Amino acid sequence: MTAPVIAAQRADNMESDEWFVSFVMPSGSTFGHLPHPNDPRVVLRELDSETCIATSFRGRATAELSERKAKQLRAAALRENIAVSKETRICRFDPPFKPGFMHYNEIVIPVYLGD
To answer: Is pLDDT above 90 for 13?
Structure first.
């Protein structure tokens, strides 16, 4: 299993039910050597680096808990005058069979940097 597994809701339409799932490949992986997906809906792409804010928490990353943590993180960004994207990423680091109270998760939000 790769870690983290990232779920992100469409930033341009937060009311949408459309989510994207991303997998972080191990350090040292080269893009050309990754296995090709069997499903045409799965797309491999290399992303540029970016600046984000994050908070971590333990427990199952339920919709309610993840939303609460995201709101807290956005409030902290607002207090510090940090401009953030509408996108929220839920990063899960543990397999689903691990007991929920042991799960480590992060909420990650991209930051807008001034030009």
So the answer is: no
